[in-house]
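Please go through the protein record below and see whether the fold suits the sequence. Record follows.
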Amino acid sequence: MNFSSEQPKIIVVGSSSIDLVLETDKLPSPNETVLAVNSESYFGGKGANQAVGTARLGASVYFIGCVGMDPLGQQIMRNLVGENVNVGFVHETDKESTGTAYVTTSEGNAAIVVVPAANKYLSVSHIDEADRYFHTSDLILVQLEVSMDVVEYTVRKAKKYGKKVGLYASPAMRVSDEILETVDFIVAKSNELFIIFGEEKREEVLKKYFNKVFVRDDTNSTIYFDGTEMKYYRKNKDKTVYKMGMGDAFTSGFAIALCHGNSVEDCVKFGNEVSSRVSGNKGSQTGLPRMSDFFS
């Protein structure tokens, strides 16, 4: 696996949030009240996770997102700046509060409710404001926690400049055939393929989009079709502490390896390694590794 001294330039368009996590002995059933044994908050949002993930791995990162004009929004901004993410295109809105996610977790399982709030106010005009940075970037990353209009507009703009685009198709929703055909790689959860691609079976989807669709599950395994055979990789810790953010971590690692010209196989392996390290820590961003961690 090769990593040059060149610093990849990456734009991440997506969401940011504060994750409020309640740890319980069991997940509550409908109409049941349970007591939390612990409560903590972490920085999250799929876009912000990928911005921090790629920045820690050595990329020069611009994040395009939207927060509220409230203390939580200021916390997110300070965190991103502290992670060397350029926030010049993170917009503040007084129409909504900063996005939040409410997570109840027990024995590795989680029930999650996301409140997009300010993330809904990211618009195509905000994407246009960063136009000159699209021209000089190496890769654009998008997810589905902002409006589909923004996602589609971002992909078209990136392709107008001939740039690579990665899509983490989560939270799952139907994605247009145009976008599926246009982006360079797609990361998806195994139990959500039918939402994204329709009724096609997994093997059919993987063969149709060979070396392009990478299917993940919560054991940190990745499967894809390389044009000849199905390829399967798994990398997990002895004890998984926290599963949220593993898909973002995989996407970050895959993207960085791709920017350095590695093979698809090596990109998958590196993505799995990055994701594995995240799962050993609480919080979607806490355990994101730095490039130096792999060479120390």
Notes: DSSP finds ten helices and 13 strands in the chain.
